[in-house]
């Protein structure tokens, strides 16, 4: 009787359950994706800051393009010069259309800047659009006609037409137009032109295609009986 080649209490070299080598252990506290996550958060913050500053351009365009609401005074009260005018609705529509355009352009620019997207980048895109809309609203009302209508009417005099303050009536829709448009456009661009995940490579099932492995019905019951001409008969012994 010969002694075993492998000493006792030592793993076999091909044992799949043995512990990995000492050099393959991960360093404690190391986070492989930490740098990438920090970079994504930084890019999202930069995106939000840039879009917030872009709200200045939106506010100036709104101030320039929005229709004015004409008012007139008779020394006792202030009236709309044209009671059937739609200038007030036009101011809201102008802001919404400009915000949608800013959302489309900002989403395309962010996608060209970083095609892979990411949650921090999308959050920065939405937050920057919302803050930019708020800033644009403030700039339009601040630099537009004064909100003190009575004082303005006394200043211009009786029967003189002057502009009403620039206001938003549908504030919710106006504030959400930019961020919603930006997220939808960015999602569509990412789905159409973003990088695709690699297709999974399906491995060969265990026991198939390997040297020395039997395939087909012979692997279950062993080889069938061989006829005199050297070919299998295809019959297998009955199992007891």
Q: What does this entry look like structurally?
A:
The protein has 240 residues and is mainly alpha-helical. The protein has a domain at 44-68 and 83-145 and 167-193. The chain has helices at residues 34-65, 87-113, 119-143, 149-156, 171-193, 218-221; strands spanning 70-73, 78-80, 162-163. It has a three-stranded antiparallel sheet, with helices on one face. Strand 1 (70-73) and strand 2 form a beta hairpin. It is elongated and about 85 Å long. The model is unreliable at 216-220 (pLDDT under 50).
Compact overview of the structure:
This protein is mainly α and 240 residues long. The chain has six helices and three strands; from the N terminus they run αββαααβαα.
Which structural category fits the helices and strands?
Answer: mainly alpha
Number of helices: 6
Sheet with the most strands, sense and barrel status: 3 strands, antiparallel
Low-confidence stretches: 216-220
Mean pLDDT: 77
> Per the principal axes of the C-alpha atoms, what is the gross shape?
elongated
Percent strand equals under 5%
Number of strands: 3
Main sheet: which strands, in order across? 2-1-3
- The ordered H/E elements are HEEHHHEHH
End-to-end separation: 35 Å
The radius of gyration computed from the alpha-carbon positions, rounded to a whole number of angstroms, is 37 Å
Layout of helices and strands, plus pairs?
Blueprint: H1 34-65, E1 70-73, E2 78-80, H2 87-113, H3 119-143, H4 149-156, E3 162-163, H5 171-193, H6 218-221
Antiparallel strand pairs: 1-2, 1-3
